[in-house]
Amino acid sequence: MSELTDSAETGTTAPAEERAELPPLPEVPPPATVPGPSAPAGPDATDGTPDGTPGPEAPSTGAGPEVPPAPVRKDRKDRRVLRAVLRWTVATVVFAAAGTSAAYGITRMDRTDVPGLATETDGRWDYPTISLPPLPSGSPRPFAESNRGSTHYADLRRLVLPAPNGAHADPALRGSDGWLATKTFLAEYATRDDRETLGQQLTDYGLRHIAARGWTTPDGTRTRIYLLQFGTAAVADEVHSQGLTSYDAPAHAIRGAEQTKTDDAFPAHATVDDVTRNTFVETKPYGAEQVREAYLSAGDTIAVIVQSRKGAAKAVPFQQTVALQSQLLG
Asked: Residue 210: beta bridge partners?
């Protein structure tokens, strides 16, 4: 073993009989060739062993010519470029994701929640939660096939649209136990003749009772809603079409609204099935305030809705009020 060690340290090759006892060495790929001066040909170019077998190259100890640095391998350069591209790609994706999430958050928010994008309301009122009142046990809805007279069996007082949030209730329309006297309803009309004529018609057609509600909103709009219930849908339809309205105007003038016309601007999509609607608006020149009116016929019940406001009665809250009351009756 000492001889094998000495041979390895000196860079010589062991005798052939000793080399035969050693396990074969794994093949090692040759090192990368570095350009340099060519070695001279001849017997001194290669160290040999006694049996003529070439031995390992001895390292050069002399100061030879300056060897230029090995060129960078192309695959290593490509890997560096790839890593740089990946870093920029990841950064771009992160910033894009952040921007997308911010944009998604903006689109999911109401405009009034975003500073600088708040918009004014379109004029609709904020009503409380509205639901239909319960029916007596075994009673059908007004427009069910089994309800031949289209009768509203629910408590009529609970079918009147509630006041919007922030409105001040009109105590004059509360009535007694929620039922309004006929003369209070007739006071909406301008002349004595109109009040007497309409009052007689209501008596002749068998008016059962009137439920009402009124309020004033902070902008000064006054709203009055009257529900008039009759014995059958046929009777109510007769009163609606002949006693309260005509083709293009109310049959009797409301106080402060002597000249009116059909409200052609009322949206058609606000129509409710089984509810006949006539809407009118006071024409210019009107006085201190403008009046809007609606007459709804729904089964055995007629709704009369009046809104007035100093200067001009706004269209949007009027349309909203009429649509909601129509839904309650339909």
From this structure: 228
What is the mean predicted confidence (pLDDT) over 40-58? 45
What DSSP letter does each residue of 120-133 carry, written as one string? ---S---PPP--PP
CA–CA separation, 329 and 295 (whole Å)? 12
Q: What is the pLDDT of residues 96-113, one digit of tens each?
A: 444 444 343 333 444 444
Q: Which residue reads 């003369």 in tokens?
A: 183
153-175 pLDDT, tens digit per residue, is 999 999 999 999 999 999 999 98
Question: Phi/psi class of residue 305: alpha, beta or left (left: φ > 0; alpha: ψ in -120 to 50)?
Answer: beta
How many CB atoms within 10 Å of residue 282? 24
**CA pair distance 213, 223, nearest whole angstrom:** 8
Rounded Cα–Cα distance for residues 246 and 252 (Å): 9
CA distance 300 to 207: 10
Does residue 291 contact residue 306 with C-beta atoms inside 8 Å?
A: yes
